[in-house]
Amino acid sequence: MSNLDDILKSRRDTRHFTTDEVPDEVIQKALQAGHWAPSVGLTDATRYFLIKSNEVKTSIKKLFLDYNKKAAELTDNEDQKELYNSLKLEAIEEAPIGLIIAYDRSVLNQFTIGTIGSNEAVKFSSVCAAQNIWLSLTEQGYGMGWVSILNYYQFKKILDLPENIEPLGYFCIGKPATNYNNQPMLQQLHWKQKSEAPICKEISEIHKINIPDFELNVKTENDNKIDFHKLLQEKIDSKTKPVGSLGTLETLAFQIATVFETLNPKIEKPTIVVFAADHGIANHGVSDYPQDVTRQMVTNFLDEGAAINVFCKQNNIELSIADAGVNYDFPTNTKLIDCKIAKGTQSFLHVSAMSESEVQLCFEKGKSIVENSAKSGSNCIGFGEMGIGNTSTASVLMSLLTGFPIEECIGKGTGVSDDKLTQKQNILKKAIENYSGQNDLLSQLSYFGGFEILQMAGGMLSAYENKMLILIDGFICTTAFLIASKINPNIKNNAVFCHCSAEKAHIKLLEYLEAKPILNLDLRLGEGTGCAIAFPILKSAEAFLNEMASFESAGISRK
């Protein structure tokens, strides 16, 4: 072939191959074409792995079959499921050669031109390489098929790919056995019709974004609550028990009634919101888990398979998941609150994690989510989070806002080894040393912040304004509370610290805040699980205050 249009039109996702071998020179020419593809900032991050072993192919085929079964179950109806199952979507074992096209995210460990704004620019370079390989193979009379229906975590594990290598998928290469009537196979088999022409719309006007000012105004409480507090304490003390014998339950009952401004408080429509986002610092190996786990766990939340789903269901708590900045595009029909600021922050080892306007947007997004919850009738909201690398972000923010040395603010996070903990400590220490910005809160938050952490802080401030009970989970959420309390210290009146986590920095942070947690169960999962587990204790405090007999009503003599 020599005509470029013909090559482009005949570039098909090949799934039927002959048994012909693929000469080495064909592969080398195709890989060279991939190497010539555009590369953001000349990162040269694309990596290739060739597979000819039948044993390896069989293992990868098994991964495909597992996920293909799951995909079939997600079809809209039985007819579509039947059609889906009839499709040939791969040729892993039939194709003479398998190729893995991947990108090396460790290139982001150094400042990389072109990735400021989106770390995914490195991935996009590898996609350009895949396209060039496809076109080169087509021009040489060969074909390639892209297999993406895989569990990528298992895919990397069975191939022993390094943590920093992120595959685009598995590509089948060989001599095409058919030209599919010169049209995409899915179109030929009536799965979906491709539009005749590209979808293109000219943009001639800009849409102005209304970004609110970052407010640091502390609102003082002017209401005289002395009489109410006196009546409330008398109600608690008049219950048929020795004074103070219900311990923390009495403290909680007093707090709940004070927040709701009634002697007969009732928790209505309790809610937990899990905010999820990715962090650029995760590219430096500060976690034992790859960044894609953030996306995987959000999917798990949506599939109701995570710990927080179980505990919320157990305690009749409404659960919402908010995409504050996950490095992934979720389908638009998921039950997901879309408050994405960007696809993850930048690495604060080199540059500011976000802009000051993005900080302001985070607070506004968090505020909006909580306000909607309050309008629905909820007066109790818990905060949870998910984000690989967010313990690193929280550690740095804690150090800056409390004055504690960074060494005292670092924990094992997802459970890293001692060696990795030392590496994490050195990276964060270097990041703080590299910082040359101002010491004001806005500057620090924009340089070192995380989208989910700042949205939680904004949400907590909004919860206080809406006279809601605020349930604080573990270390990350307490760091978000720390930020919110720097803006309005009165927020502590509404805050219930649900547990003390196994993160050593959490103990120190709770002491700094003079906060007494309800539970100590060595939890370090996040997700808001501590809030859900502690919730029955809040209900017990509510119950005794509202339902327990008084000495007078029971006809029992006081001490």
UniProtKB/TrEMBL annotation:
Pathway: Nucleoside biosynthesis; alpha-ribazole biosynthesis; alpha-ribazole from 5,6-dimethylbenzimidazole: step 1/2. It comes from the Bacteria. It catalyses: 5,6-dimethylbenzimidazole + nicotinate beta-D-ribonucleotide = alpha-ribazole 5'-phosphate + nicotinate + H(+). This is Nicotinate-nucleotide--dimethylbenzimidazole phosphoribosyltransferase. InterPro entries: BluB (IPR012825), Nict_dMeBzImd_PRibTrfase (IPR003200), Nict_dMeBzImd_PRibTrfase_bact (IPR017846), Nict_dMeBzImd_PRibTrfase_N (IPR023195), Nict_dMeBzImd_PRibTrfase_sf (IPR036087), Nitroreductase (IPR029479), Nitroreductase-like (IPR000415). Belongs to the CobT family. The active site is at 527 (proton acceptor). Keywords: Cobalamin biosynthesis, Glycosyltransferase, Transferase. It holds the Pfam family DBI_PRT. The gene is cobT.
